[in-house]
Amino acid sequence: MLKFKSFYSALLFVFILIIFSGCVSRQESGKSVITVWHWMTDREPAFKELSKRYEAKTGVKVSFELYVPSDAYSQKVRAAAQGANLPDIFGILGEKRDFSSFIKAGFILELTPYMDEDNAKWKNYFFAKALAVNEFNEGNSYDIKPGIYGVPIDIMTIQMVYNKALFKQLGLNPNRPPQTFAELLDIGKKIKAANLQGLVSGWGEIWMIDCLANNYAFNIMGKDKVIATIKGEVPYTDPDWIKVLSLFKDMQESGLLASGLVTMVNKTAEQLFANERAVFAFNGSWCVNVYKEMNPKLEYDAFLPPKVTDKYPMAIWGGAGSSFMVSGRSKNKEEAVKFLRWLTEAPQQAYLAEATNNLPANKESINKIPQVLANFARAMDSATHPRVWGVSEFSPVIEALDKGIQSIIIGEKTPEEVAGEVQRIKERELKKRR
Amino acid sequence: MKIKSALENYIFVLPAVLIFSIFYIIPFFSVLQLGFYDWDGILPTKIFIGLSNFKEIFSDRIWWQSLWQSGYITLIALTFQNALAFLLAWACDREIRMKNFYRVIFFIPPVLSEVVVGLVWQWILNGNYGILNHWLTHFGFANLTRNWLSDPNTALTMVAIVHCWKGFGWGFLLFLAGLQTIPRELYEAAHVDGANAWQSFKSVTIPMMISVVVLVAILTILGTMQVFVLIYTMTGGGPGYHTEVPVLRILASMRGSSRFGYACAQGITFGVILCMISFVQLIVSRKAKN
């Protein structure tokens, strides 16, 4: 009995020791260590290599910690923020509203003074649209002090891509993607007749439908009307919005949309396109790397979603692909900023672009990228992003719009019905905020 | 001496109490408390809004639709899945050849990862390249082929069937264990009294298995109402809202909309509903036993 008690007491002691050891702060070693949390699996080896180069140059160790999948990463960052355990550098996945909450809570350092040093030398590295995603302008609706709060690591655009071999099979010119929406629908009919699969995309994951719907909303009604809708000044039942929703019905009826698209995740869509089982895909510039890994011989090219009208320019989502922020509570703020400045210099950006096939955020590195990637980069002129609009649509409204479009595609609801439902949710959300 | 002994006892139970409090009691009350707040999960400030979140749940059509849909899956699991599990357990309990082989085979689906199962079935049910459509066409039923997971008429039922396939092994195992505890003498006595196989089953097997059936039913309801990973992998809740279930809605509130307070209120409401179902089931089963 005594032996048992002694054993149990020892066990208890170890247990208490473990608990308290968790409460003790980490010992600071003499050498600086910058910790970076990220979710970018494809960039991990390149980051590790750059970390080695930086340590060799400055003696400062940079520890990149990868957390996947991105959902889990996102939750980890939020939990760390609550526990005041954020790393020195991290990225935020989510809407601009979430970004603003992190800033309001003091979790993110304002980088404007650093960007403006030496006649804005650092700021001038970047494409203006890449920086805009991390910027809050004067009079922004989030009540954030105007300034720059993040550093873009790369840029992206989301466009259409088409398979050249399947274009030939359909009797089409492989070097001429459709220029108008009517042409796109005509190709849809040919795809249906040839019993091929048309457009694939991750429309089961919601946000990509939202992206294409917004592209066409910009083309049909212009930016101002889209923003006015988000502000609640124009209803979703407006004829222009009905027209946007009807495009999805037209695409479905023409045979352009691949079967099972509404529950398709982007990974499946990428596999189908890379394996030459689909004529079109709607995907981001990251797909260049993905397709290269899946099928290096794939012949394809990128193009802007074909216009419905010439009244307004077509806009696609683009800007900063991924960005890093410096923790406002980090003890290594200065070191962290120095590292990010180094990471975004032309040689490091060129290396990242070459190793990962992502578009560099640094303007000087853009001429050292493959042809298809360059086509994605050219579309930066047409790029916009919800994060630069200054206002955010309510999440339930975005969900209702996206799910509604799914319902239109499966023939369950009409565009008018979906518009009515979305507007009802919009009014409910507006009422709650008043 | 008495005080020392009592103190010793308290110290010995302290680790268990600490673990239980830290990982169960405190989170439970935190979730309950958050249900009364409007909070985005990031800002340090939370706005107290009383019962607003709970009131909103009552008018949230999609929430109740998701609850109804998980109820539909549960109904299929309770009937189809458990009937199959019981029949197979009954067959394996009899003197049949290779019964140990069957026992292993039937228990393979439950030990597989839900993500893997979801992805494999997604491939089987794929409208373009799926093996199900391939075989249907091969055997002359091409008119039946469809995109099983994107068709609102079939998506939920398909998800329910896959869930049953994945889960029937648990019921099988419990039913088999229950059947093996029934004394063989009872069957021998019934046989001597002239009972045939059906009468033995009706008068011996069923009454002796009531408690196991109740246990399996409770586990099926609680497990199926909380089904999540499989649906997340197979359909993500689509097409539209046709395969949404409560846990997916809670996740959507928390992650998609950054409404932690509302998600906590949904979690509490869902927990209360599950408790009520279990309570009713327990009362019904007690009455049935009596």
From TrEMBL, chain A:
Key word Signal present in the record?
yes
**Recorded superkingdom:** Bacteria
Q: Which GO terms describe its molecular function?
A: maltose binding
Q: Which PROSITE patterns match?
A: PROKAR_LIPOPROTEIN
**Entry annotated with the keyword Signal:** yes
| Record key words, sorted | Signal, Transport
- Pfam families, per this entry? SBP_bac_8
Instruction: List this protein's GO terms for biological process.
Output: maltodextrin transmembrane transport; maltose transport
Provide one Gene Ontology cellular component.
Answer: ATP-binding cassette (ABC) transporter complex, substrate-binding subunit-containing
Give the family from UniProt: Belongs to the bacterial solute-binding protein 1 family.
Stored PANTHER family: MALTOSE-BINDING PERIPLASMIC PROTEIN (PTHR30061), MALTOSE_MALTODEXTRIN-BINDING PERIPLASMIC PROTEIN (PTHR30061:SF50)
The identity of this protein, by name, is ABC transporter substrate-binding protein
